[in-house]
């Protein structure tokens, strides 16, 4: 039985080798077609390398300033302020840490606000959205549609007043940028430096959008994180102004009361009561004003601690990093791909012919 199995294996191996030779001879007989396909692929690959526009990458890196310690002196002062019913902020804004901050950069609100930022292009002030539209030649198609031909995106335009068509266009721009043109990531978990990469076929757009996005997010970040401190500082400033007016009025009242009691008979003490009350008001308002001024200065210190919050390290500098589909790459890929597809087509064609028989 072992002898029979050995003979069957030998026959199968011989048949396999013979089959491979037949396929090789068949493909070799078609060398002209395969070569022609390779040449066509080379031409197509070379043509594509000329047509394909280079892609530019603008990179901006920044460090997030997060001063949580603040020192014992500030901490004690904040505790004193809270005892008077005042919340001076002091380290708020924890929602914008780590991955939350990177997602903020990629949020639709920030991207659309950035697209409406003004830039100067060829001596004209336009929005980044208009520059994006020009880069993609959308206006040529829009001029054929009555609904789109008058659509404009002015610099610093009010986003809340956009109509449905404008919302749709902004949505398309956001989708294109967020899916293939915008990347925000922390390169190394051990280093608190975040990088923004903007990829575009237009070098200037990549640079302008990258810088504008960092600026808009930084502004929003500062305003949000320091909102509580700014509100309390405004309240304290209003209270200081109010108490100062009261104190000035009390001082004036003391002077008027003293004038009314000048050379007054010492026996008529009741006439001196208004002056005494005014002096008490002066002392009370002075004490209150002194404490409010301290708290107001403390609020200013707290606000300064929370601003600036984003420190830019590297900005995109022209010329930007460029990735281009090279001619050699086009020739190799085009020729190989076309030749491979032609060989695959010939193999499938012969298999179908054999099956049909």
UniProtKB/TrEMBL annotation:
Locations listed in the record: Cell membrane
Polysaccharide chain length determinant N-terminal domain location: 10-114
Chain ranges passing through the membrane: 33-51, 330-348
Keywords tagged on the record: Cell membrane, Membrane, Transmembrane, Transmembrane helix
Record's bilayer topology term: Multi-pass membrane protein
PANTHER family xref list: FERRIC ENTEROBACTIN TRANSPORT PROTEIN FEPE, TYROSINE-PROTEIN KINASE
Name the UniProt record assigns to this protein: Lipopolysaccharide biosynthesis protein
UniProt organism field: Flavobacterium tagetis
Organism ancestry: Bacteria, Pseudomonadati, Bacteroidota, Flavobacteriia, Flavobacteriales
């Amino acid at each position: 039985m072992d002898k029979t199995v050995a003979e069957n294996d030998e026959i199968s191996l011989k048949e396999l080798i013979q089959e491979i030779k037949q396929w090789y001879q068949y493909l070799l007989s078609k060398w002209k077609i395969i070569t022609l396909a390779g040449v066509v692929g080379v031409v197509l690959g070379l043509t594509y390398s000329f047509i394909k526009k280079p892609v530019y990458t603008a990179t901006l890196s920044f460090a997030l300033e997060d001063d949580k310690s603040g020192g014992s002196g500030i901490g004690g002062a904040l505790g004193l302020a809270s005892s008077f019913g005042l919340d001076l902020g002091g380290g708020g804004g924890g929602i914008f840490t780590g991955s939350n901050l990177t997602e903020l950069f990629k949020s639709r609100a920030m991207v659309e606000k950035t697209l409406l930022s003004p830039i100067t292009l060829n001596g004209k002030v336009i929005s980044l959205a208009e520059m994006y539209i020009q880069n993609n030649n959308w206006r040529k198609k829009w001029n054929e549609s009555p609904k789109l031909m008058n659509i404009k995106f002015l610099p610093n335009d009010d986003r809340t007043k956009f109509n449905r068509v404008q919302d749709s266009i902004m949505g398309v721009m956001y989708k294109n940028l967020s899916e293939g043109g915008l990347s925000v990531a922390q390169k190394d978990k051990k280093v608190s430096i975040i990088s923004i990469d903007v990829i575009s076929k237009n070098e200037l757009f990549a640079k302008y959008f990258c810088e504008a996005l960092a600026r808009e997010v930084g502004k929003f970040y500062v305003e949000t994180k320091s909102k509580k401190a700014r509100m309390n500082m405004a309240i304290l400033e209003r209270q200081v102004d109010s108490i100062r007016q009261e104190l000035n009025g009390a001082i004036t009242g003391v002077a008027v009361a003293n004038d009314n009691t000048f050379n007054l008979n010492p026996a008529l003490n009741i006439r001196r009561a208004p002056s005494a009350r005014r002096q008490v008001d002066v002392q009370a308002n002075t004490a209150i004003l002194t404490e409010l001024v301290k708290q107001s200065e403390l609020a200013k210190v707290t606000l300064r601690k929370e601003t600036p919050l984003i420190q830019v390290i590297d900005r995109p500098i022209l010329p930007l990093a460029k990735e281009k589909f090279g001619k050699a790459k086009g020739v190799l890929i085009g020729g190989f791909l076309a030749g491979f597809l032609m060989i695959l087509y010939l193999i499938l064609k012969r298999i179908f012919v054999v099956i049909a028989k």
